[in-house]
């Protein structure tokens, strides 16, 4: 049972990975730029390969920036080629590299290891001819927005930090907001989002299947001493663009760092690319002015012109994100596994035992016809909830919850109806048993006792998951 639950909760790890190219390798030099192939050591001595793009006609040592990509295993350097090309054309030396696949899977990832990889890239770029080693910093996209600050907090080699679509909240909070927003766009509201999806995410983290779910982003930012540039797209559908900047500011200020700049591009997507459909699709081009901002800001901060808490008005996001704590002990993966095991044994066992007796020619009149409804409705509701939320998790950002009525998908309404029927049937069965207590055979008492025990456990379980909540 635990293994089955583990596989189901593994759907939580359908985190938004950028599309990977078919193969990683050398990058040809774009017009007006040079391309230098490099290799360096990352965490655990792993050799990582990358490319440094720089202007062909550079005057004096250049500032440099290492680009740290978003989530996904083995993301090739070409994924950030547009950013690298545009930044290099603004006078920067830019290192892009193939992300590790070793030690990075749907079931395991380590921001600490990725941060060590990024610092290895910083050391390599600092050593490149024509690069000013005192002016090399880090740029992180999405997941890289957790990794780049962590790397900078560990080493003064990084002169600055840029985060794009970054989060100063836990990954589980960001991911639940991301997936819940997809449901809200489909017209869904209520307990499916507030309890079902949120608690399923916590269950995944409890089972150690949601890697880095409670990464302490504010704690890391408190240790960052370098100037920070935060950039968000107003059409970001993956990271809450209104909630995160104040969280960044508070964490940086707690650490005594007021050298930050926050800017927003209203019509840009998660990666600050142009988007033709309000963030659903990533366009090829960067948002107008984005590359200019990065180039000018890096030149300013590496020349000693540091910003002082410079932020633009926040963009508006459609739905707020919600802080998510780890599961309490009574809702842990072990307790959930025990509850599901009880439901299977009791709810499925009740009719199966009756069938076995009929096959042996021993018929016992049931205490109440309601007992069969309790068994059938309870088992269907429990199994249906697990598989329906699993389906929604696997669908990621673009779920199809089915027809929606008054904010509730019809499959969810059906599960809620079954849960209510199970509760009513349980109460009716208990009343009938009490009235007929003296005439109930011992074997039937055991069977009914187990069934009613499962029915009693089902009530708080269904409330927790939202089946008995509007």
Automatic annotation (TrEMBL):
Q: Is this entry keyworded Transmembrane helix?
A: yes
The highest taxon in the source lineage is Bacteria
Q: Which PROSITE patterns match?
A: PRO_ENDOPEP_SER
> Could you tell me which PANTHER family the record lists for this protein?
ESTERASE ESTD (PTHR43265:SF1)
Q: Which residues form the signal peptide?
A: 1-23
Report the source organism: Actinomadura livida
Please identify the protein, giving its name as recorded: Alpha/beta hydrolase
InterPro entries annotated for this entry? Answer: AB_hydrolase_Est10, AB_hydrolase_fold, Pept_S9_AS, Peptidase_S9_cat
Species classification: Bacteria, Bacillati, Actinomycetota, Actinomycetes, Streptosporangiales
Q: Which residues form a coiled coil?
A: none
């Amino acid at each position: 049972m635990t293994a089955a639950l583990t596989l189901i909760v593994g759907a939580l790890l359908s985190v938004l990975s950028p599309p990977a190219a078919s193969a990683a390798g050398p990058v040809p030099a774009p017009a007006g730029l040079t391309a230098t192939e490099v290799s360096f050591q990352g965490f655990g001595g792993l050799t990582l390969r990358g490319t440094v793009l720089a202007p062909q006609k550079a005057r004096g040592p250049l500032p440099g920036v290492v680009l740290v990509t978003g989530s996904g295993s083995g993301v090739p350097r070409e994924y950030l080629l547009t950013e690298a090309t545009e930044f290099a054309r603004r006078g920067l030396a830019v290192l892009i590299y193939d992300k590790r696949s070793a030690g990075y899977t749907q079931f395991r990832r380590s921001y600490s290891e990725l941060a060590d990889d990024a610092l290895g890239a910083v050391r390599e770029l600092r050593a490149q001819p024509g690069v000013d080693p005192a002016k090399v910093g880090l740029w992180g996209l999405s997941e890289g927005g957790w990794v780049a600050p962590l790397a900078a907090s560990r080493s003064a080699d990084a002169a600055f930090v840029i985060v794009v679509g970054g989060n100063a909240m836990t990954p589980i909070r960001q991911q639940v907001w991301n997936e819940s927003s997809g449901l809200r766009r489909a017209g869904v509201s209520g307990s499916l989002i507030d309890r079902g999806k949120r608690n399923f995410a916590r269950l995944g983290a409890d089972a150690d299947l949601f890697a880095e779910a409670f990464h302490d982003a504010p704690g890391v930012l408190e240790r960052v001493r370098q100037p920070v540039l935060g950039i968000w797209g107003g059409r970001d559908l993956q990271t809450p663009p209104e909630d995160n900047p104040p969280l960044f500011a508070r964490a940086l200020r707690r650490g005594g760092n007021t050298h930050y700049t926050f800017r927003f591009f209203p019509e840009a997507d998660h990666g600050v690319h142009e988007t033709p459909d309000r963030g659903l699709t990533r366009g090829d081009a960067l948002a107008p002015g984005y590359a200019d901002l990065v180039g000018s800001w890096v030149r300013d901060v590496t020349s000693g012109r540091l910003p002082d808490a410079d932020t633009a008005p926040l963009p508006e996001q459609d739905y707020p994100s919600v802080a998510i704590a780890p599961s309490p002990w009574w809702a842990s993966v072990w307790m959930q596994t025990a509850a599901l095991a009880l439901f299977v044994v009791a709810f499925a066992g009740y009719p199966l035992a009756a069938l076995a007796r009929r096959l042996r020619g021993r018929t016992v009149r049931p205490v109440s016809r309601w007992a069969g409804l309790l068994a059938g409705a309870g088992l269907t509701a429990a199994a249906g909830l697990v598989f329906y939320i699993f389906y929604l998790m696997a669908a990621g950002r673009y779920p199809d919850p089915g027809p929606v009525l008054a904010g509730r998908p019809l499959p969810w309404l059906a599960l809620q109806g079954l849960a209510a029927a199970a509760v009513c049937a349980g109460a009716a069965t208990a009343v009938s048993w009490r009235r007929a207590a003296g005439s109930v055979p011992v074997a039937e008492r055991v069977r009914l006792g187990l069934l009613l025990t499962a029915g009693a456990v089902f009530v708080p379980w269904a409330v927790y998951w939202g089946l008995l909540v509007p």
